[in-house]
Amino acid sequence: MIYIKDTYATKTGELWDCGLSDLLKEVIANIDTSQVDAVYVGNMLGGVLNEQLNLGAKVATIIGRNLPVVRVEAACASGGVAVNQAWQALKAGFYSNVLVIGVEKMTDFSNEEVARALAMAADNTTEFNNGVTFPALHALVAQAYLNKYNLAPAVLDAVSVRSHQKAFADDKAQFHKKITEDDVRASAMVTSPLKLYHCSPISDGAAAIVLSTEQTDLELAASVTLASREFALADRSDLTSFAVVQEAVAKLDLSELEIVEVHDCFVIAEIIALEDLGIMRKGQGWQEPEHVKVNVRGGLKAGGHAIGATGVKQMVTLAEEMRTHQYQLGLAHNVGGVGAQVALNLIKKR
Ligand code: COA
C-alpha cells in the first residue's frame, strides 16, 4: 500500500519576489528529502514562459544529490498525473519514498503571453491555431450547459460567491475577499457568459507531497489517469459532461466520499465536475452538495491556480483537512485542458 508522509504548499498568488527556482527551494526546504529515492515534478509552462526546461537537474541541484527526477506535463493536470506516476512507481516496487512537486510561475508575463501559453493545452490544429483562449473554450461549455438545462447565467454566480467565502480564512489562498452575487454580476465580461469572477486567476505557487511504502495515517488508496480520445471540443457530441472523467470515475468506489477538491478553473468546470463525479444530478451541479464538502479552501477559483502545482496542492489540502478533521475518504479531481486529461487521486484515512 502507498501512504502520504510530508506535505507542504507555498502561498498561491502573485508572488512577485519569487521565481521558479525560489518556489522549488521553498517546497524542498520544507520537506524531509533525506529518504527520497526519486522525484516527479508537475509543471506545464517552464519551457514556454520561464525558459527553463530540464527541471530534473534544477530539482536535483536544490536537493543536493544525484537522483532520478522526471518532469510530467499534462497541462493543468500535470500535478495530479505526477502523483499518479509516483504512485505507480511505488506500487511497482521501484522505490520506497517518492517526492512529488507541482510548480508554476506565471505572473512575470503579460496576460497575452500567459493566455497564449495556456492555449497550447488546446488542440493546436483546430483550436490554438484559430486563436481560442481557455476562457473562450469554457464559455462554449458554459453556454451549452445553460442551453441544455434551460438555466439563466445567474446560476453561475453563487458558485463563485461560495468559493471566495471558503478562501477567505486560508492565508495561503490568492484572494481574501468575500463577494456577493451582485459583485459577480457587476464584474467585467471576459468571454460571454463568463465574467471575471467566474474565472480562476493567473497564479504562482508550488506544492509537495512525499508518497511512501511506510505506513502513515493516510493511504493513497487509488489513482487513475486517462487522456481523452476526443481532444478538441469539435470532436465531442456533448459539451456538458467530460466522457474521459466519467470513465475514470467508474474505476473508483466514491459512495463513501466525504471531501473533494474539484478542478474549478472556471465555475462551469466545478458544476460539470460535481455531475461527472456523481455528487450532483445532471443539471443541478450549480447547487451546493449537502453530503460532500467541496473545495473547502476556495478551490482554484479563489484559492488560485498555479497550473502545474494545482493537482499536488489539492493533495496537500486534502491531507491537511483529513488529518485535522474526521473525514475518512477524500478525492482530488484534477483536469487538463477542457476535459482532455484527468487524474483522480483517492485518499483513505487508516
Ligand atoms: N477572479 C477574481 N479576481 C480576479 C481574477 C479572477 N479570476 N483575475 C484577476 N482578478 C482581480 C485582480 O486581483 C485585480 O484586482 P485589483 O484591481 O483589486 O488588484 C483585478 O481583478 C484586475 O486584475 P488583472 O490581472 O488586470 O485581470 P485581467 O483582466 O488581466 O485577467 C482574467 C482576468 C480572468 C482574464 C485572468 O485571470 C485569466 O485569464 N484567468 C483564466 C486563467 C486560465 O485560463 N487558466 C487556465 C484554466 S484551464
Report strand %. Answer: 15-25%
Please name the CATH topology of the domain at 3-109 and 203-212. Answer: Peroxisomal Thiolase, Chain A, domain 1
* Name of the CATH superfamily of the domain at 3-109 and 203-212: Thiolase/Chalcone synthase
Q: Class of the domain at 3-109 and 203-212 in CATH?
A: Alpha Beta
What's the helix-strand series?
EHEHEHEHHHHEEEEHEHEHHEE
Shape: globular
Main sheet properties: 5 strands, mixed
Second-tier CATH architecture of the domain at 3-109 and 203-212: 3-Layer(aba) Sandwich
Give the integer mean of the pLDDT values: 98
Number of H- or I-type helical stretches:
11
Instruction: Provide the list of bound ligands, each named once.
Output: coenzyme A
Strand line-up across the major sheet? 1-7-4-2-3
Number of strands: 12
The residue ranges in which pLDDT falls below 50 over 5 or more consecutive positions are: none
Distance between the first and last residues' Cα? 11 Å
Helix content: 25-40%
Oligomer: single chain
**Helical/strand content category:** alpha/beta
Radius of gyration: 19 Å
